[in-house]
Amino acid sequence: MNLTFTQEQEMMRKMVRDFATAEIAPFIENMEKGEFPREIIRKMGELGLMGIPVPEKYGGAEMDFTSYIIAIHELSKVSATVGVILSVHTSVCTNPILYFGSEEQKQKYVPKLASGEYLGAFCLTEASSGSDAASLKSRAVRKADHYVINGSKVFITNGGEADVYIVFASTNPELGSKGISAFIVEKGMPGLVIGKDEKKMGLHGSRTVQLTFEDMMVPVENLLGQEGAGFKIAMANLEVGRIGIATQALGIAEAALEAAIAYAKERRQFGKPIASQQGVGFKLADMATSVEAAKLLIYRAADLRTNGLKCGMEASMAKLFASRTAVEVATEAIQVFGGYGYTEDYPVERYFRDAKITEIYEGTSEIQRIVVSKHL
Ligand code: CAA
């Protein structure tokens, strides 16, 4: 694998880094108070960031998958909230339409998603069906030219703010995972009820809601793929989505590492900077080594994807390792900062709070181990 990035990819990195520093960093305080970064998303749309891997004919930037991962990486270093908004929007809302949608569906939805006019969400998880995604209870019944969907979803990232939702519901419960179908649902469709906005430990600027479908009427032309193909659509897109979440974790870990190094060089105890004392120096060395390893796993998985090769196992390995790294490195960064790290005066407590969810959503670490072990 060649880990030298192309000129185009380096330009993407610089552009996103500059954007994140200039536009996102000043808005972090607002996001920490719960404000959704609507204006930032609009500007990202203008820069082409909301449709990086989308073909030009559907209004996208038509760049490779690695460039998309570079964007999530740089965004997440500044704000994990913005990182997850982009990852969910692209990996598990735009991509399913792009890969499994009819030509009409692609033309209707993808250009608006790629420009950022529409924001996307993915609705799989239910109150009693998390890791066991195939056990979902939402039900879709065909009535003439509509499906009538009843049920509810929980922990929907971008929910409420999103304009397009990929919704999974069973059209034939007797068939288990093979009875699950996917639907493209628009915000205004009758029967879609936006519920409780979760109060979370971290990612305060990202919206996570419950959704209820009360006789929600979805036109038959909004069935995505064939009836019964929904579970495979969910899995295939989650597989790739997991590289995005791994990258979000990497961004958090790298930000925590950089903050810890800067502080350790500045902070003096026992007559010298704490960075030059072995207890702290070794800690920083371990943190940096883990971050580097996570980076290699992620860019390796991204490279496979960019080249159209299978990446399911590598994506799960990357997510498993990078999310653990984010939690460990953020924890150690607080340790380096000592008492100051526990206060809101420094960003490391935010990294710590934002890191934990990367071990949970888009498949817990335990689920990633199941996926990896099945491949083995
Ligand atoms: N691509 C295509 N098809 C796949 C696939 C993939 N990656 N993985 C599985 N399938 C297919 C299988 O081939 C099988 O079909 P066949 O019988 O025709 O071969 C079918 O799907 C069922 O597969 P399994 O028997 O392996 O399914 P399972 O019920 O044992 O579940 C699982 C497998 C990996 C545990 C899965 O349930 C899973 O990934 N669970 C975690 C759910 C998850 O990640 N949720 C995230 C929610 S979204 C989110 O978090 C977004 C956010 O907010 C950030």
UniProtKB/TrEMBL annotation:
Residues 121-216 form the Acyl-CoA oxidase/dehydrogenase middle domain. InterPro entries: Acyl-CoA_DH_CS (IPR006089), Acyl-CoA_Oxase/DH_mid-dom (IPR006091), Acyl-CoA_Oxase/DH_mid-dom_sf (IPR046373), AcylCo_DH-like_C (IPR036250), AcylCo_DH/oxidase_C (IPR009075), AcylCoA_DH/ox_N (IPR013786), AcylCoA_DH/ox_N_sf (IPR037069), AcylCoA_DH/oxidase_NM_dom_sf (IPR009100). The keyword Iron-sulfur does not apply. Residues 6-117 form the Acyl-CoA dehydrogenase/oxidase N-terminal domain. Its cofactor is FAD. SUPFAM superfamilies: Acyl-CoA dehydrogenase C-terminal domain-like, Acyl-CoA dehydrogenase NM domain-like. Keywords: FAD, Flavoprotein, Oxidoreductase. PROSITE patterns: ACYL_COA_DH_1, ACYL_COA_DH_2. The keyword Flavoprotein applies. Residues 228-375 form the Acyl-CoA dehydrogenase/oxidase C-terminal domain. It holds the Pfam family Acyl-CoA_dh_M. Belongs to the acyl-CoA dehydrogenase family. PANTHER family: ACYL-COA DEHYDROGENASE (PTHR43884), ISOVALERYL-COA DEHYDROGENASE, MITOCHONDRIAL-RELATED (PTHR43884:SF12). This is Alkylation response protein AidB-like acyl-CoA dehydrogenase. It comes from Neobacillus ginsengisoli.
